[in-house]
């Protein structure tokens, strides 16, 4: 390493989530690899949307940002792929989809002025509710927080009342009694907070979504060759470790939920499940119609046969 560098990293999610853990691991790994000549200060739980964090990294206000995939769909429809409904319900399927989409992510981020460092997985998304949901009729009465436009459309298609918002705002509205449910994996610290208000978790495996850790591209290109090498090395190590940890993390989350008195259900009412699936397929079809040919073709690569989805 040449001169010392200090980087600031921003995330809207708690430190105790997988992406939050990823940022902390990256900071620790880079510090160790550089013999403390490169340090990262991580700021978690920021009251910022993913698009605001992206803009801050592009301007250089933060050097690194952690960004939830679906929340970037307003920037480019490509980013919706990471949280497509009922398309990547397992670690293996999410990794397969990532392998197909990754070159496109890297290219698109480059045009936005940031460099993709690594990709963090989230445990599969489930539905949190205050009370058990026994029917589609009961679902229609629920005010549910979702994390992107597509998940909001899916919830509405099944009759629910969907409002898209960051997790911090959802927690505030739960406290005030303005929400009845949240679409979320409830990973780590986020799950512990949700469990204070929502006593039921339905493991519907809506998606195994991802977050991106990105760095200001001009800053990255301005680093010395050995500095870039160590940044890349630390990033690669973090990504490998997070995906290896995912299955164990899911089991740990469910164990913590049950220990806290949250009821964990493996499925919803059959008619409601069907309505959500149908809403998911409708949302994907609409997305494909609005996406450019190159972006839409990614699902074709992921599903070699039309029957795949």
Task: Describe this entry's structure for a reader.
With 309 residues, the chain is an alpha/beta fold. The protein has 2 domains: 5-123 and 209-250, D-Maltodextrin-Binding Protein, domain 2, CATH 3.40.190; 126-206 and 257-308, Bacterial extracellular solute-binding protein, family 7 (D-Maltodextrin-Binding Protein, domain 2, 3-Layer(aba) Sandwich), CATH 3.40.190. 48% of the residues lie in helices and 17% in strands. It has 11 helices and 11 strands. A 6-stranded mixed beta sheet has the order 7-6-8-5-9-11, sandwiched between helices. The protein is globular, with a radius of gyration of 19 Å. The protein starts with a strand and ends in a 7-residue tail after the last helix.
Break the fold down into its secondary structure elements and pairings:
Elements: E1 5-10, H1 18-33, E2 38-43, H2 50-59, E3 64-68, H3 91-111, E4 114-121, E5 126-129, H4 136-139, E6 143-146, H5 149-157, E7 161-164, H6 167-175, E8 181-184, H7 188-194, E9 200-202, E10 210-216, H8 217-222, H9 225-259, E11 263-265, H10 270-290, H11 293-302
Parallel strand pairs: 1-2, 1-3, 6-7, 6-8, 9-11
Antiparallel strand pairs: 3-10, 4-10, 5-8, 5-9
Helix pairs in contact: 1-9, 3-11, 5-10
Keywords: Signal
Pfam family, one: DctP
InterPro entries: DctP_fam, TRAP_DctP_sf
What descriptors fit this protein?
single chain; alpha/beta; D-Maltodextrin-Binding Protein, domain 2; 6-stranded mixed sheet; 5-stranded mixed sheet; 11 strands; 17% strand; globular
In short, what is this structure?
The strands form 2 sheets. A 6-stranded mixed sheet has the order 7-6-8-5-9-11, sandwiched between helices. A 5-stranded mixed sheet has the order 2-1-3-10-4, sandwiched between helices.
């Amino acid at each position: 390493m040449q001169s010392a560098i200090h980087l600031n990293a921003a995330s809207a999610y708690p430190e105790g989530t997988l992406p939050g853990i990823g940022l902390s691991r990256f900071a620790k790994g880079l510090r160790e690899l550089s013999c403390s000549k490169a340090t990262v200060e991580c700021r978690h739980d920021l009251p910022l949307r993913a698009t605001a964090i992206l803009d801050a990294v592009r301007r250089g206000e933060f050097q690194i940002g952690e960004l939830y995939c679906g929340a970037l769909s307003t920037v480019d429809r490509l980013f919706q792929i990471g949280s497509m409904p009922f398309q990547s319900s397992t670690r293996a399927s999410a990794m397969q989809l990532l392998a197909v989409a990754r070159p496109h992510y890297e290219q698109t981020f480059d045009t936005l002025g940031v460099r993709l460092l690594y990709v963090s997985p989230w445990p599969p998304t489930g539905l949190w509710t205050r009370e058990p949901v026994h029917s589609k009729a009961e679902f229609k009465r629920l005010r549910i927080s979702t994390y992107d436009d597509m998940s909001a459309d899916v919830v509405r298609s099944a009759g629910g009342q969907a409002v898209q918002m960051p997790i911090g705002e959802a927690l505030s509205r739960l406290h005030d009694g303005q929400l009845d449910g949240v679409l979320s994996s409830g990973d780590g610290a986020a799950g512990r907070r949700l469990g204070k208000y929502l006593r039921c978790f339905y493991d519907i495996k809506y998606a195994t979504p991802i977050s991106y850790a990105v760095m200001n591209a001009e800053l990255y290109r301005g680093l010395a060759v050995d500095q870039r090498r160590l940044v890349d090395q630390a990033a690669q190590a973090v990504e490998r470790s997070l995906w290896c940890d995912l299955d164990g993390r899911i089991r740990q989350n469910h164990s913590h939920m049950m220990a806290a008195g949250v009821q964990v259900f493996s499925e919803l009412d059959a008619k409601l499940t069907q309505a959500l699936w149908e809403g998911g397929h409708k949302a994907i079809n609409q997305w494909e119609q609005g996406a450019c040919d190159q972006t839409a073709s990614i699902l074709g690569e992921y599903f070699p046969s039309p029957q795949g989805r």
